[in-house]
Amino acid sequence: MIHENILQENKKIKEKYIYRRTRLPYYGWLHPCIICGIITSNIEDVGQLEKQYEIYKFITYLCPRCQIKKHSGDKEINKKFKSTTTRYINYYYPNTIY
After folding, report:
1. Interacting residues of 89 by C-beta distance below 8 A, sequence separation 6+
2. What residue ranges do the domains of the chain occupy?
3. Exposed, middle or buried by CB within 10 Å (0-12, 13-18, 19+), for 41?
4. What is the pLDDT of residues 16-36, one digit of tens each?
5. 79 three-state secondary structure
6. What is the DSSP letter of 34?
7. How confident is the model at residue 6 (pLDDT cuts 50, 70, 90)?
8. Which residues pair with 15 in a beta bridge?
């Protein structure tokens, strides 16, 4: 158990942002909502993926309207959110379980 804790402490945490592509600057704090495309600074954690030496933390840009709908159980919004984030993670990190 002690060895496992030491390994986790040495892992680098890398944040990966999921959003639609636009002409906005890559490193800006405003990006389109992944569901409706409205420009927002509102973010939400999707989850994380642990590799041997790194932990990838996935974060999405989600406008307040879509975020409320997602958390209230809107099936269409949840389906689109899940498919978009899963497709991104599977494309950039193949052969991983998310």
Report:
1. 49, 58, 96, 98
2. 2-92
3. exposed
4. 888 888 887 878 889 999 999
5. helix
6. T
7. very low
8. 57
